[in-house]
Structure prediction request, 221 residues.
Amino acid sequence: MTHNIAIDGPAGAGKSTIAKILAKELGYVYVDTGAMYRAIAVFYMDRCVAYDDEESVNSLIPEIDIRIEYKDGIQQVILNGENVTGRLRTEEVGKMASKTSAYPKVREKLVELQQNLARVTNVVMDGRDIGTKVLPDADLKIYLTASAKARAKRRYDELVQKGEKCDYDVILKDIEERDYQDMHRKESPLTKAADAVEIDSSDMSIEEVINTVKNLIKDEA
Ligand code: DC
Prediction:
């Protein structure tokens, strides 16, 4: 039996930061499911398939092969034999992933892969439907959220620090749009599982969130 922790929540709530630290401390594997949906988005973007062309999206599914590997403990996504990890974290790919992940056939393709990973190893897995759909029997489910304004501010600070030009209002609007899309789609929308513990990180440091989760793990034992 493996021990699995599911972390769901909206874009920018800090899921991956928290999941990575936790996985390292626990000696578990961190599984970033958003990266898998992003890799599928890259596949369609490379073929100039429009996000609303469901027929083409569905007909090309059999041509997609996604594999997960780990290099120095960091997840790599292999799309049809090519390591696309370095192409996944752009705003454009995130937006396309939010659109194409709404299609049931796209989700079907990835859910099984995610479940298989959790079956063979202890994981901290983050995404939108981990506690509700992928790992309904996860040992601990966290719903990590933060206000849209707090998430936009964090993103803004991150970009400014990198020396990139950005506009807070545009970032906030993008976040609100993505929330709406991820929460209102028909198939596996982002929602808190009934047995998930909600953590609002708006006014919390990373350390405070980690300590809260660690206490929940202790309580579980
Ligand atoms: O977490 P992220 O920003 O990398 O995810 C990109 C998009 O992928 C997100 O907007 C919705 C989708 N996604 C999903 O539908 N289900 C998941 N388990 C993870 C991500």
Q: What stands out?
A: Residues 11, 33-34, 37-38, 94, 97-98, 101, 127-130, 178, 182 surround 2'-deoxycytidine-5'-monophosphate (CB under 6 Å). Residues 4-208 form a domain with the Rossmann fold fold (CATH 3.40.50.300).
